[in-house]
Structures are given as C-alpha cells and as structure tokens.
Description:
The structure is a homodimer of 214-residue chains.
Chain A: H1 8-26, E1 31-32, H2 34-41, H3 45-53, E2 65-66, H4 67-77, E3 84-89, H5 93-99, H6 103-106, E4 109-116, E5 125-126, E6 129-133, H7 137-144, E7 148-151, H8 155-167, E8 172-175, E9 188-191, H9 194-213
Parallel strand pairs in A: 3-4, 3-7, 4-6, 7-8, 8-9
Antiparallel strand pairs in A: 1-2, 5-6
Helix pairs in contact in A: 1-4, 2-3
Amino acid sequence: LKTLKVPQATVMRLSLYSRFLEQVAEKGVVTISSVEIAEALGVNPAQVRKDLAYFGEFGTRGVGYNVKELSQHIRKILGLHQVWPVVLIGAGKLGSALALYQGFHKRGFQIVGVFDNDSRKIGQKLGHLKVLPLDQLAQVVEKEGSQIGIIAVPADAAQQVAEKLVGVGIKAILNFSPCVLNVGEEVVVQNVDFSVSLEALTFNLQMRKMHQNK
Amino acid sequence: LKTLKVPQATVMRLSLYSRFLEQVAEKGVVTISSVEIAEALGVNPAQVRKDLAYFGEFGTRGVGYNVKELSQHIRKILGLHQVWPVVLIGAGKLGSALALYQGFHKRGFQIVGVFDNDSRKIGQKLGHLKVLPLDQLAQVVEKEGSQIGIIAVPADAAQQVAEKLVGVGIKAILNFSPCVLNVGEEVVVQNVDFSVSLEALTFNLQMRKMHQNK
Lengths: 214, 214
C-alpha cells in the first residue's frame, strides 16, 4: 500500500467533486471547467486539476471536462461503479441510526447485516434487517462477499470487534468508536470523530472573532 | 469571512495534530520535529510546516517544536481554549447517540440542550439531559450563550430547523441531515456525510485491486 501516494485530502475532495458533478449532470450541463468546479466547492482551481491529474488525463484545454465522463471516471476511481455490501457491528443508538441512514444507499453502500452480542438487541428489526448475534458474522460476510465493516460499539469493545472483523476476512473498517484500532497493515481503517467537524466550526468562529477585534 | 484563506484540509489536519500532540505530551515528550509529526500522521513534513505557518512562527530550526506550547497554540487556533455550549436538534436514534457521545466533552464541547418536536420524545432522559420542546430553544441558547447547533433531524425538516437556529442567534451549524442547507453567509455550516468516509475506504480497496492486477 506504500506505493499509493494519493493524499487523503485528495480522496475526500474526489468525493465532493463526484457529488457536485452528479448534481450538475442532473441539471443537463454537458461540460464544466476546473474553475467552475473549484468555485462551486470553494477549492483552488489548480488543486482541482492536480487532484484529477493523479489518475490520468481528463478534459481538453480551453474546453473543460465532459461532465458525465468525468463523473463516471471519479466514481470508478473511488470504486463506486459497484455496490459494496457492508456489515455493521453494534445495534445501539448510533448503530441503529447508521443501519437506517439513507445516505449510504445513494452512493452504492448496502448494509447487509447488523450484529450485536446483546440478547435484548438480537432479533430487533432495523428497516428490513434483523439484528443478528455476532457468531453469525462469518457466515454473512462469506455469503455477501463483504469487504467493509463498520464498528459502532462502545470504545472498550472496539478492538475486540476489529479483530473479529479482520478474522472473518474484512479488509476495510469504518470506526465510529473513539479509540485507535490496532489491526494489520493489510486492513484500511478510517476513524470517524464527530468533534473534528465541530472543530472546523469553532476554528471559523474563532477566526471571525479575532478579525472583528482587529 | 472571505479574508480567511486557510484551506479546510489544513483545519482538519490541525485537529489531527492537536490530538497527536496531546497524546505525545501525556507520554512526557518535550520537543518534536515536523518530520516526527508528519510520520506519525502520514502527512508530508513540508505540509506540516506550511499548515502551522498560516498562524505565525512556531518552533526553532534544528530543534523542533515545544510539544506543550505547540499543543496549546493549536488548541487556541481551533478555539478550544474555552468550553463551547452546543444545542442539539433531533432526539431520534442519531440525535440520542450524539447527545451521549463521549468524544465531545474531551474536546471542550458540551451539549447543553436537546430539542425535538415529537411529544413522545419530549421529557425523555439522555444522560443528564431531558429532551425539550423546540419552543424552548431560544431560551436555552440565550441562557447558555450557545453559538453552535447540531442538526440531527430527517432531511425534510432540516432547512426549517436551520432557519430556526439562525433565528435564535446560532452562528455555526453541524448538519447530519443528508441535504444542503440554505443559510446566510454569516453562518458557518459543516455537513457530515458518512458515505464520504466509506468512499475513502473503497478508494483504497479499489487502488489495491488495480495494483494487484498489474
């Protein structure tokens, strides 16, 4: 994995470009420039071109990008030309919210199993899914071909759950527990920390205050 | 706000640096170099120096940064030298999970009120908080001096809630609803989209697959 030198910020921006291009395509726009993409998303145009240049030559100088082509290219780069079956561990409040989250389906993610070890939660319905005991995880992962697991359990159980996921062949983990997971280099982990998003807000409030006091 | 040209990716990295420096400080480390920070977080050292240079001169060439000083500086840049009282709208599954989320407190965020307009939810206890009706929002915001609101309501109610928040004087919104909010330029909005984090994973799985097929 060390040869993949694409910065994480670029990958995040690709997700934004992808969403924006799909909105624009729906409106019937055929071509778009890096300047237009940049302005709509508050990014530098040179950054847009640099981000896309990691993945080959797109667009024509002076004409811009074909919206549909670029949109499909980016979806493919992000691996979104297929549906990803995802298993979810933890059927507490956060896990339940994630199981019912509408935003996943739209981007090609399908929760195929929700697991918990709490007997009061097992058997509960979350949308069309029934919460299953953890000992059925291996079976579901194999049947559905899942490579991605979401962890939404308390922090003190997260490492054990991560090991279980890796043990049944999961290759990528989205971790909502506020703790650092120790897994092998072969497994990709993405941590979700809600405070990071709040800090982007307080940064802005803070900057504004300093600015007003000048 | 147009004069604040700090890229959002820099702000996100500042949050990471901040977390890392606090871990390192706890271990008793006194000085640290940009190379060490960069290596620990998988960032380019030049990027670390550039990110910090937005906010003045830190560190000594050849010696590095004083961990505690830099940590405090970054906390201050992010506005984390104070406690932020936050109001939360929506006491459904996601809202409840957020109200009980342990990660906020650690970074100086305090949920001071949870609101819903569903009479079945009003009065319910979430930790030490009781869910309040939305018509008490203005009162709580004023009493607590909240500038930040979190939206965790269904997409079709989000815009209305955003307007209500702005109406009572909220300056910054963290939006968990999968929709674009229309608020004035004076209000900072940060959207949380869980699929973006999943796409960072599928990107990696995709790249790895391409790499193996070479």
